[in-house]
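3.2 Worked example (two chains)
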Amino acid sequence: MTKCGGVVFAAYVMSDALILDGGFKERRWNISKIIEQGYIETQTFSVRTDPHQIIDVIRKEKVDEIMAEYPVTRLHFVSADGCWSMSDVLEELDDELFEIYLKYHFATCERNDMLGLSSHTIDIFKKD
């Protein structure tokens, strides 16, 4: 809660990045079993989480739907870590290539077409 003119920061774990990273890239869990258990809808691949879980995942359109109910103006919606999880790749870059990656990341971190592919996002609002 904040007074009018105050700034609110919210962080999200994006569901599509979780599916791509954990279900396909790293195969941390069996995506077929997760679908079978009803946690991933097979037409849109939206994710349903259990209220007893510690973490919840979301898509940007759901964030927009929730935040539309509040008297706020979005200042930024930013990808914190870029497309999927790049940590394993970034560790291997030399300094020059890492600097180029940072320039790329800052140039693309607010593009709507890329936000759902980020594992983590930061939403910044100003209360009206």
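3.2.1 Second chain
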Amino acid sequence: MGLSPEITVMISPSSIQFQWKESHLSLVPYVNIDLRKMAPVQIGEKAEIPGTVLVGVFDPQSELPSYPDKFPILQMIFEYGIGKIFEKQLLPSLRPIITVRGIDSLKEVFFGYQHALISMVIMKAGAQAVRFE
């Protein structure tokens, strides 16, 4: 066991689940975006909110008007998940090591580039390293 916390992420087109020690967080891969501010209003839930656009990061039919790239939206989900999993921790922790399970379930979404894309988004979200199982 190293100094960095190790988070396990179970990923599928319908959910992203974070597990660290006794902490567990399950998010759906959707973000509500306020188009006026281009800011997230709600992350990890699939609910219509007036004045926002609901963006499904793994849903090819879901689009953000005038913004073709969903990469920053996916990054928001991972930043939120990593932050939320440590929310009750009193001391700051080092950047986590993330172990991803279920990556092959995204093969149809990312056309075989799922390892590279998910690794990149997790690193940009604050991880120290990414492993795949």
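3.3 Remarks
The CA atoms of residues 7 and 21 lie 8 Å apart.
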